[in-house]
Amino acid sequence: MSLPKFLIGMTFALAIVIGWSYVGGASAGIIVVRTIIGGLVIQAGYFLLVYAMIARSTPTPADKVRGAERRLVLDEPAKAEKP
What we know:
By secondary structure, the protein is mainly α. It has helices at 3-23, 28-56, 61-81.
């Protein structure tokens, strides 16, 4: 999910929380607290979603090639030092 889509969705979700609280007769302080809690819950969920996506991703062929090149570079001095 891209950042602009997330921000638009979060704005609408928080607007719904504000409207629902207002219609329910909550005071201004309660509306602010509910909005802050809603924002924190949404942000934490987004963070966990992105973390899960990164943790589950598999290395691409370019990552594998880069890793192999790094191992070759790191192994060369060790081979040159052997008697």
